[in-house]
Amino acid sequence: MGCWSTNKKNIVTSLSIKNIPPQSNKDKEIVSETIARNSNEFSEKTDDDIPDYLKNSIKLKINADTTENMFPVWIEKNVKIKIFVKGKWSLLPGEDLVSYKGHVEFKQKYRNLPIGALIGRVHGGEYFEVNNGMTYQSTVSGPIYLFANNSRFTVDPQGSLNVFIQNAQSLPIEIIEEKLGWNITELDTASGHEYISENERMQIIFINKLRSNPRKFAEQYLVHLKNLNNSYLQTYETLINYTPTKVLNPSKSLYLAAKDHAKDIGENGTTGHSSTDGTGLKSRIIKYSINPTYFGENCSFGNKDPFTNILHLVIDDDNSTKSHRLNLLNEAYDQIGISTLPHASYKFVTIQVFGTGIIDKKIPTFIDL
Question: Cys bridge to 251: 256, 335, 343, 344, which one at CB 3.0-4.6 A?
């Protein structure tokens, strides 16, 4: 599976029963998206000490972050919204906090804007620079995305901005997903499984979006990125014509196999599909299941953001076999286990294990390994 690391080279590995592709370690630029369940805060109510003209606004607290976060705020086409910004943040190591305009003294730019400048986008629309007191009229209807502008620079995010939006509508995230054409009830197969973290649950939702409707996934998440380079364009064109397949259901056996591997290599700072004692994927699965016959694995190091990992895996750059993408879209798989844990060398490791017809062994009690 793919990842983006801001301070180390990327490590991306995948495994299936037929193929082990070479690792990729080229730096990548990823524009990522997450459903608004993250460290940023959302509130319809504003603080008592703000000016009267902002008190009827929707308030968003945006921590310094280069992840393209989707907020549960709906913008209607051709409606003029007002945006106000307060606060300071910083992306660059050792630099003082700056305003929403970003690190204007830094010579290098991205999107012709300073690093750390506040960027916005309404779903399906173009990026725009956010300025305090601006009026913005979108050409499309959709939720809004807000994030700090950055390319490939090492970042040390600090501080936050308060963004106030007027003439917009706050909606539950489930309603927004429905308006975008997704049935989260069908896609959220990990719901109710207490051993699955929110991060891991979100990965499963994104994977099930990809599998159940590749065309919609491409139109929603890649259409505004397809001109970045040939890899994005090739991925977009592939998914537009890809045949949908069934969603994946969580398997505790596959989860425990993924967690064992993530914990082992995470604590020891290693990479690859073999455990530090030489144990392979099949042996890790057999520990918890009965006679597994068809399975695969993706490994990602460096970033824990759910969508960043999935997007990079789908792009699968520098991998001629596209085995990471194929693992995600393989119609033979019907089960998945995911574990994301700290990594001694790359901050985070994510292990995805796929399978078919996996039957759990009877385990008397669940032990949090």
Answer: 335
